[in-house]
Amino acid sequence: MIEVEALTKRYGSTTAVDGLTFTARPGTVTGFLGPNGAGKSTTMRVVVGLERATSGRATVDGRRFADLPAPLHAVGIMLDARSVHPGRTAYAHLLAMAQTHGIGKARVREVLAQTGLESAARRRAGTFSLGMGQRLGIAGALLGDPATLILDEPVNGLDPDGVLWVRRLVRELAAEGRTVLLSSHLMHELALCADRVVIIGRGRLLADAPVQEIVDRTGSGSLEEAYLQLTSDAVEYRTDATAGGGR
Ligand SMILES: Nc1ncnc2c1ncn2[C@@H]1O[C@H](COP(=O)(O)OP(=O)(O)OP(=O)(O)O)[C@@H](O)[C@H]1O
């Protein structure tokens, strides 16, 4: 479970996250949405201890990330699939992660198989396509068999097969009782795989409800329409094509 409570993060005069509160619960895929610069990545980075909150708090299973005894087992993270050392093979990358937690080679092979990377295991990550890099990032997130997963744009760069695979995977993870927090700009995809969505704009909460409830409450025909309506005042860079709710 992820709990974000009155979280504020400032960078100098920029307030990236502004008094944000929400909970991502076990057995649920929570979609995390917002326009560019809304504060999604910053929130996720605070949750996983890469940034320090200016005020408020963010916890995983009731603990701050820094206080988790074995982080890989508590929370699987894919924030930036490109953060892998390009000279390392997929296998070596995962093995190095595994060794920090006493996880064995068998589990490394298991996640390589689960993410469809078996045949690419001995290839250097620097030669991977965007989609293969995403798969490797997801493999790393799954490695510790964590109860919580945080995936930033997991379908970015995936082909239709890959998109379907991620959709099934996150649904399975939630069905196993895990907490999944997933950000994406692909509304159609989120509507298919998320149970509820948390929408933020300019660092503030705009909506936190089941997908259907948000669609109904806004009188929209789709999550995309509801999203455009809810974020219409919170978009910093809007082109003519999207001004006025996409009409
Ligand atoms: N390290 C940093 N230093 C200064 N400002 C930052 C830093 N990181 C983020 N910001 C600012 O904080 C705000 C929120 O950025 P963030 O990356 O969290 O948004 P986001 O919702 O993830 O956006 P996107 O959809 O474009 O990835 C932006 O105004 C951004 O410029």
TrEMBL record:
Listed transmembrane segments: none
Residue span, ABC transporter domain: 2-227
InterPro entries found in the cross-reference section: AAA+_ATPase, ABC_transporter-like_ATP-bd, P-loop_NTPase
GO molecular function, one term: ATP hydrolysis activity
PROSITE patterns: ABC_TRANSPORTER_2
Highest taxon above the source species: Bacteria
Coiled-coil ranges (or none): none
SUPFAM superfamilies, per database record: P-loop containing nucleoside triphosphate hydrolases
Keywords: ATP-binding, Nucleotide-binding, Transport
Family membership noted in the UniProt record: Belongs to the ABC transporter superfamily.
PANTHER family for the chain: ABC TRANSPORTER, ATP-BINDING PROTEIN
Protein name: ABC transporter domain-containing protein
Organism: Cellulomonas algicola
